[in-house]
Amino acid sequence: MNFQIVMLLGQDGLTNGAIYALLALSILLVFTVTRILLIPQGEFVAFAALTMAAMQGGTPVRLGWLLLALAAAAMVMDIHATWRRDGRPAVRRGSVLGVGYAAALTVLTTLVPLGDAGVAVQALVTMALIVPLGLALYRVFYQPIAAAHPLVLLIVSIAVHVVLVGVGLLMFGPEGARTEPFSDGGLRLGMVMLNSQTLWVVAVSLGLILGLYLFFERSLYGKALRAAAVNRLGAELVGISPELAGKASFALAALIGSLSGILIAPITTIYYDSGFIISLKGFVGAIIGGLASYPVAALGALLIGQAESFSTFWASSYKEVIVFTLILPVLVWRSLSHHGAEDEE
Amino acid sequence: MFAKKLAVSLLFGALAAGAAAPADAQVKVGVVTSSTGPIALVGIPQKNSVPLLPTNIGGQTVQYITLDDGSDPTATVAAFKKLITEEKVDAIIGPSGSPNAMGVIQFAAEAGVPMLAPVGTAAVVLPMTEQKKWVFKTTQNDDLIAEALLAHMEKAGIKSVGFIGTADPYGDNWLKVFGEGAAKRGIKLLASERFQRQDTSLTAQGLKILSSSPDAVLIAAPGSSSVLPQTTLYDQGYRGKIYQTHGAALPDFLKLGGKKVEGTILAASLMLVLDQVPDSHPSKKIASDYVAAYEKQNGSKPATFGANVYDAGLLLERAIPVALKGGEPGSAAFRGALRAALEQVKELPATQGVYNLTAADHSGFDERGRELITVSGGKWTLVK
To answer: What is the Cα–Cα distance from B363 to B343, expressed in whole angstroms?
Structure first.
């Protein structure tokens, strides 16, 4: 083990750690605002990566159909809700817009070959598909039960995850896929070659984290989300819609997930079920942050990336064991330092 | 297209639930595949090959009952029990995965139902025991493939090898078989690294291999997971020979690997290089017919996994007429006779090679069941 190997392993750990950090932040965001543990977060990653790959490989992009189905379900639920409330069915403009948007995107991705459109356009289309998917998931599965016990929300999350993995197999097939790197070459720092994709990952992650910071500290919507996270009832009393907060946090989580997927797709082969294990590591990061602190969660996720990289080098067969065992001392320490665990319900 | 497919599959799902058992079938064969879950890439071509299996053998109609185990060994056991106790099948083809197969051997043996397993690991038929007597394996044993690779290594003057394999029974068995063979030929195994199919980075494994600087690297992984180790090694600047197992023998390997897998050597069945094999090869016509029929039905070329199920059908086609002399389908006597008849199959050409089964060898391939193949100019090419 020499200096160069340490640097290469560190770079590898940093790339993965940055992705885990992004996922840890979005899991944390969704949890604090809605008390939902977003298990399907990984599906955003995998679906984004596979959609990019499908566009580049010239195979049919089918994600639009899922979005269309969910938008239609949301519309039906909206109509049903107004019926129950007012005694007569009415169509809200928002749900019509949603269905129209999903239909337009489905037509676009089915008919227009995006293979030569360039990475930027493909990434934009992918995000245009995934972000509303997050919204629709919240509307269809979580909004009707938003006030339920966190345990119920967790069980629904697991169900949504399992269904999405199955739908993923149907949409993308069992084979893995990979996309073109954004740019070739890299940056030489002394004797270490920094991979260009690593630079992309780190740069985009830093940018996103900075953007989130500004959003939460400076903008009214960000502050409203924070208020909803601190005290749900209080936020509602001062006029912050919990529905809006839930939808906004899901849209942000989907945005972060799709960006992670787009970033990681050129580095590795992604399968329809790869998302879970990636987001699980982000989740471990969020746990290290006690599901409360953003900076600690991000640092924890970076630590997971490094631990993974180095433990793979020393004992590749036991890598997952080592990474997930890391969570134990953290949990012990947290439970010892917080006497009399308070139940928030 | 996709919406249509979805509608059709939903419709068939509903129909299959309602009409699982037509009355007049005489020989019943259960098929268990993993067409969903982590090893769906193996199970899907297998499931798609079921409609191509013979439906009339020796004057008897054959009914196939297909179940999905979702890649879960527990579900495989449940599927086997259902087939044996409720459907009273005469034979079972499947399951798709090695761990799934290991778990059901005892149930097949207790019920006395011959099981034709299209799985990779030789552990289902070796070492032969009283229970494994009921298992037949329609894939090449790992050691047959390993022998071909080792012979090529020896000829190329390779003295040391690094190994990267998946952390599952496939990788386990390859490490064992290859390690033994290499020791016999005086080839040193310098490093052995493992990974999971879903791993997002193999940098560390690659570095470990690089730092031991072997003459060649063998990658043992099923399906498209065999690509990432090789491209990682390439990106890290490794330019030695890279060997792959028959697990990499699928079209996606070339698509995912691109230029970085040029020059790879692997040993696999002739299906990848059908047009380059001489017409005199006993398997050529059967394999071409299978590929054509599969393509017509599904619109894509089959991975070799599907051919393993098709071969099981060919074995049954040879054995059932013999077994019919031993008893009526549906009886224990028939199943016993079927087992004995399968054991007697000699010189049966199939899609993967030629079967010569004996009481001790329930896989029965010889060197006609493997070809040395390399990647040249982005295409699979037969090594002459």
So the answer is: 10
Instruction: Walk me through the domains of chain A, giving residue ranges and CATH numbers.
Output: 3-61+114-175+195-337 (1.10.3470)
Residue B41 Cα distances to A274, A311, B71, B97, angstroms = 14, 29, 10, 11
Work out the burial of residue A214: count CB atoms within 10 Å of its CB; fewer than 13 is exposed, 13-18 middle, 19 or more buried: exposed
- Name chain B contacts of A57, Cβ cutoff 8 Å: 255
Residue linked to tokens 């890290």? B236
Dihedral sign for Cα A118, A120, A121, A125, please.
positive
Which chain A residue has its CA at the smallest distance from B231's CA?
A: A268
* Mean of per-residue pLDDT scores for chain A: 87
What type of residue is A62?
R
Domains of chain B: 24-140+286-367 (3.40.50.2300), 142-268 (3.40.50.2300)
pTM of the model: 0.79
Instruction: Extract the tokens encoding B287.
Output: 């394999």
DSSP single-letter state for residue B301:
P
- The DSSP output letter for B84 is I
Cα→Cα distances A286→A20, A38, A194, A246, Å: 9, 12, 28, 19
Report d(CA B361, CA B366) in Å as an integer: 11
Q: Chain A residues within 8 A (CB-CB) of chain B?
A: 1, 5, 8-9, 11-12, 15-16, 19, 57, 60, 62, 65, 166, 169-171, 173-178, 264, 267-271, 273-274, 277-278, 309-310, 312-313, 316-317, 319-320
Give residue-wise pLDDT tens across range B233-277. Answer: 998 888 899 999 988 888 778 888 888 899 999 988 888 888 888
- Is there a contact between B295 and B301 (Cβ–Cβ < 8 Å)? yes
Model confidence over B147-184: pLDDT tens digits?
Answer: 999 999 999 999 999 999 988 878 888 999 999 999 99
Chain B residue nearest residue A185, CA to CA:
B235
Q: Are the Cβ atoms of A12 and B201 closer than 8 angstroms?
A: yes
Q: Are B47 and B64 in contact (CB under 8 A)?
A: no
B199 pLDDT higher than 90:
no
Q: Where are the alpha helices (DSSP H) in chain B?
A: 2-18, 40-49, 73-81, 98-111, 142-155, 169-184, 203-211, 227-235, 251-257, 284-298, 304-323, 332-343
Q: For residue B19, what pLDDT band results from cuts at 50, 70 and 90?
A: very low
- Which one, of A253, A266, A205, A200, lies nearest residue A42 by Cα? A253
User: For residue A246, is pLDDT > 60?
Assistant: yes
Inter-chain contact B201–A15, Cβ cutoff 8 Å? yes
3-state SS track over B337-359: HHHHHHHCCCCEECCCCEECCCC
Q: Distance (Å, rounded) from C-alpha B197 to C-alpha A272?
A: 12
Q: Name which of B41, B48, B201 to mutate to probe chain A: the one with the most chain A Cβ atoms within 10 A of its Cβ.
A: B201
- Cβ-contact B307, B290 below 8 angstroms: yes
Q: Is B2's CB within 8 Å of A62's CB? A: yes
Token reading at B268: 């696999």
